[in-house]
Design brief:
The protein has about 750 residues and is α/β, with parallel strands linked by helices. The chain is built from 16 helices and 36 strands. Bound molecules: acetamide. Acetamide binds next to loops.
Length: about 750
């Protein structure tokens, strides 16, 4: 699984040969396994590659020139040598910067590509004068992937190549190309021309967020597809960078576009149309012989085109409503002795796996393929958390970890106002940095099945490649650090490097997100004093400024603690030299619960646990447009049941709760809210209740007024909506309940 051992051998060799072995924390990302810096530097006006590796380096070098690296070709007397060294077992490279030039030794194309990524960064970050050094480097995880959804929105061949450039520069070796969806089919299949003429297009596209009601559409036909010639060109381009492209044909769900062209593959006789909005649709492929024949023909062309070891067959989010109603499906289930529709899904996937295996390829599927029994040779991509990955590893299957909590780069990356519309959530790059592909709780004997991780870029809300750059790149660079083995030492050291990289790409005109000057706040309740705010900036040298709601001007933050007291907006920002970060607003409501003690009967989900249970009474109000982050608590399937204890008896007559509604993301308002006082004997007295709050917006506020009551303890219960009704997004699953804040007066 990991290649570290091989490289360590080289590290030892180098260290022994080299008495000056200070370890340099170089600016290279991902941080190399080992770098030893020597006295002096190599200065160059132009870099000249002179050995016989032109064929291997080919368009890689042309591309480096495009990124304004001064590289030239010459038959001899060059100052960059690339040597293929078969003695390096696999996975690593050696790079020496000497007075006369740069020597790279690597075994194959992927490792040469890794070395060139390092060389590129050495050149770009050192302004033509590279310190003399020895780098011995290799990846920790064998699978270092980035995904891109080109079905919700499509990007040009040149843009896909640019994406691959970034992958290569940060040593990713897998590109998971999500080519088909309900909203469009994006790959030419010669045997089925209607995939090009019909399935590649949708009539129009949703405007705004799925949660905005009523839905509105742009009225513009949208679509297109990559021809097989374009696909070959892109594969060739990726191959030169040591990147394997794994194509995904998503079946049996997410196939509405396909059904729009070939409705006979559905379970119902009707007209199907490519989807014009996002989500999960009950129109899915029917497991009939005709469908299998069709898919075998499609996969035959895919396999012919893509040299990859893997083919991704999707398998996610396939509602079973139509299979339950279909007489044909029920007959198949009887014939195959399948006890339910989950097993029918497993039958579907296993037939496809058998076909793909027969062509010498292996399948990857999203973690739903575990349901009803895993196909014998499948690799599982764990996305709905880590449980799927754990289960599959325990069954001896390879897994790729890509949990929504850390690896979905379509989630918000900043709490700032003014971020471009995103699907939801909150995954700042710092959270990606903290992540490890090895899930907690997986026994060490199964770690070998965790091949690595992947960042996913779903493009419902990304119409342009510029927007993809914004959402993906900073977190992608961070993920590269994690997957390479995280040799940066600490997040502070990583931050300093990341700052250099984002600045470099900004100078190159790339729309990379730069949140290094964002401030983050940590709130702490200090008994009898109030709510204290700790403010920090990722840029450790930055100056922090703040202002209270009533202040006219910002002031420099001194060492004195800041306590929240006034009602209204507190503002913060950080500044480094002439660069000023975004202003962050914290909205505070003083109330009687601010410094109370709170206990929750049910823990919120780990992923949506804010700054702990105190988050929902600390007076700081979570944003209106986005759940996740430091304030909202999210409960999957569970009720909110909070016991709030004051330091002394209080007179109360009012409790208000705020809930988030996002049914597209399975987030429902509670079915009821109740408030009780609890006396010193533990006896509960109901103070008031409301039934399901309603709202057309994302936020519902419930007010419960009651006659003045003296109590030291209050209990607040908001009942989870329960199972999501069939036919809705997430039908049959537990719904989420999101709450912030409980205001007590
Ligand atoms: C997925 O996000 N539906 C795999």
């Amino acid at each position: 699984m990991n290649n570290v051992r091989v490289i360590l051998l080289y590290v030892l060799l180098i260290s022994c040969n080299n008495p000056s072995s200070d370890v340099l924390v170089t600016d290279i990302l991902p941080t190399p396994l080992s770098a030893t810096v020597n006295e002096g530097s190599f200065s160059h006006n132009s870099l000249i590659i002179d050995n016989g590796t032109k064929e291997i380096l080919g368009n890689y070098i042309d591309w480096m020139k495009e990124w304004s690296i001064p590289l030239e070709w010459k038959e001899e007397n060059g100052n960059v040598k690339v040597v293929i060294d078969q003695s390096i077992e696999s996975g690593g490279y050696l790079l020496s910067v000497e007075k006369e030039g740069v020597l790279i030794r690597a075994k194959d194309r992927p490792t040469i590509s890794n070395a060139l990524g390092t060389l590129y960064q050495l050149i770009e970050l050192n302004n033509g004068k590279i310190p003399l050094m020895e780098i011995a480097d290799g990846a920790y995880y064998a699978y270092r992937g980035m995904h891109l959804d080109v079905a919700r929105h499509m990007f040009s061949v040149a843009e896909i190549k640019k994406y691959l450039d970034f992958l290569a520069l940060y040593k990713f070796n897998k590109f998971h190309w999500h080519l088909t969806e309900d909203q469009g089919w994006r790959i030419e299949i010669k045997k089925y021309p209607k995939l090009q003429s019909i399935a590649a297009y949708r009539d129009e596209t949703l405007i705004g967020h799925y949660n905005d009601q009523p839905h509105q559409f742009d009225g513009k036909r949208y679509g297109g597809y990559y021809t097989q010639e374009e696909i070959k060109d892109i594969i060739h381009y990726a191959d030169a960078r040591g990147i394997e492209i794994i194509p995904e044909i998503d079946i049996p769900g997410h196939s509405l576009a396909l059904l729009s062209a070939y409705p006979e593959l559905g379970c119902e006789t009707k007209e199907y149309k490519a989807a014009t909005k996002w989500g999960v649709f009950s129109d899915v492929l029917c497991p009939k012989e005709e469908t299998f024949k069709f898919l075998e023909n499609v996969f035959s062309e895919i396999i012919e085109l893509f040299p990859s070891e893997y083919i991704h067959i999707g398998g996610d989010e396939c509602p079973k409503d139509q299979w339950k109603k279909s007489a044909l499906c029920q007959t198949i289930m009887k014939r195959e002795n399948l006890k339910d529709e989950m097993e029918l899904q497993s039958y579907f996937i296993q037939r496809i796996e058998k076909f793909i295996n027969s062509k010498g390829k292996r399948i990857i599927g999203w973690d739903e393929i575990l349901e009803g029994g895993l196909a014998p040779n499948a690799t599982v991509m764990s996305w709905r958390g880590v449980q799927g990955g754990i289960e599959a590893a325990k069954e001896g299957h390879d897994v790729i970890m890509t949990p929504t909590s850390h690896c979905y780069f379509d989630y918000y990356q900043s709490q700032n106002d003014g971020e471009p519309l995103a699907i939801g959530g909150y995954t700042p790059y710092q959270k990606v940095y903290e992540w490890s592909p090895i899930p907690e709780g997986l026994e060490p004997s199964y770690h070998k099945y965790v091949m690595g991780g992947q960042g996913n870029v779903w493009t419902e809300y990304m119409k342009t490649f510029d927007h993809v750059e914004y959402m993906a790149l900073t977190r992608m660079i961070t993920l590269s650090e994690v997957l390479w083995g995280k040799h940066s030492g600490s997040i502070d050291q990583f931050n300093d490097k990341l700052f250099l990289h984002t600045s470099h790409w900004e100078d190159q005109g790339v729309n990379i997100a730069n949140h290094l000057l964002d401030v983050t706040t940590q709130l702490e309740v200090v008994a009898d004093k109030g709510v204290k705010v700790d403010v920090s900036s990722a840029a450790s040298d930055a100056q922090i400024y703040w202002k209270s709601p009533s202040a006219q001007n910002f002031q420099i933050k001194s060492d004195a603690d800041i306590f929240l007291g006034e009602s209204g907006e507190y503002k913060f920002y950080s500044q480094l030299k002439d660069k000023k970060g975004h202003e962050y607003e914290l909205s505070f409501v003083p109330h009687k619960g601010n410094t109370a003690h709170i206990e929750l009967k049910n823990e919120p989900s780990k992923t949506y646990s804010g700054n702990g249970s105190q988050s929902i009474i600390n007076g700081v109000i979570g944003p209106d447009h986005r759940y996740g982050g430091s304030e909202w608590l999210g409960f999957s399937g569970d009720d909110l049941e909070a016991t709030i204890t004051f330091s002394k008896i209080k007179k109360l007559n009012y409790v208000e709760l705020r809930f988030f509604k996002g049914e597209g993301q399975w987030i429902y308002l509670p079915s009821s809210v109740e408030v009780f006082s609890i006396d010193e004997n533990g006896l509960e007295k109901k103070l008031g209740n409301t039934m399901t709050p309603t709202t057309d917006n994302k936020i519902a506020v419930t007010e419960i007024k009651f006659p003045s009551t003296h109590t030291k303890t209050l209990k607040v219960r908001a009942k989870n909506y329960g199972l999501i009704p069939e036919g809705r997004q997430g039908g049959g699953h537990d719904s989420w309940l999101f709450v912030d804040e409980i205001i007590i007066r």
